[in-house]
Structure formats: structure tokens, C-alpha cells
Amino acid sequence: MPKTTPKQTKGNDKGPEKTPGLLSDLNFSLKGRCPVCRKGKLFSSFLTITKKCPACGAPLGDHDIGDGAAVFLIFLLGFSLMPLAWIIDVKFAPPIWVHLLYVGGLGAIAVFFLMPAVKSYILLLEYRHRPPKDGQKK
Ligand SMILES: [Zn+2]
Predict the structure, then answer these.
(1) 15 backbone dihedrals φ, ψ, rounded to 5°
(2) For the chain, which residues make up each domain, given as ranges?
(3) pLDDT tens column, 37-55
(4) How far is the CA of 94 from the centre of ligand 1 (A)?
(5) How far is the CA of 86 from the centre of ligand 1 (A)?
(6) Ligand 1: distance of its center to the CA of 33 in Å?
(7) Prediction pTM value
């Protein structure tokens, strides 16, 4: 049973722990892997986080990330798609159904591809900053 969290690195006695950068974390989140061992699959189905990591047994289901991923995506897509719709409306003045098509389509596609990654990223941050209280209990 591994006893490391993503925050822990080798050589802890050499100074402050060095955490991976944002790009490294985002790249890792796209893979949908366990934040503890970085090997086991994180999702048992499309958006369901597995109860225990199949590789290391980390209790991934103990964390409750709630609606954090959905709220994050609402902000991200709201602040990117709405200005796009406004710019297209000002430049081309298309009928409203055209706006509904591309905003709805792009939004649905973005949610489909980004929701698992955002959930994975939030879980990674939660493990890094708030590990389970009783360690890596199975
Ligand atoms: Zn694991």
C-alpha cells in the first residue's frame, strides 16, 4: 500500500515540498487516473468516481467534490461562450436559432469532454490539500 500523496515527493528533508505545476496537473487530469498512485482508473463509469483505486486501494469514494466541477464549467463556458455569441451577433447578426445551435453544440461538446477532467483535477487538489483523515485506509 503506497503511503504517498501527490503532494509528497522524494527527498522531503531537502527543503519545502515541491508540487507539480498547473500544466502538469491539468495534463494529469485529462488522463482520469488515481491522484494517489497515478496508475489506477479514476472513473468506474463516465462520471462516477470509483470507490477504491483498483491499483493502490486508495479510498477515492470518501471524497465528496459535490457540484464543484459543474460550477467550474459553468463559469468557464459562460465566460467564453457568451462573449463569443455576443461578438458573432454584433458582426453577423444571425437569427437566434443559429446562436442556439453553436452555443448549445459547443457547450454540450465542451461539457462532455471537460467534465471528467475537471472532476479529476478537483479530486487531485483535494487529495493534495486535504488528504483523508485516517490515511490510506482500505
Ligand atoms: Zn491509486
Answers:
(1) 130, -165
(2) 21-129
(3) 999 999 999 989 999 999 9
(4) 49
(5) 44
(6) 8
(7) 0.74
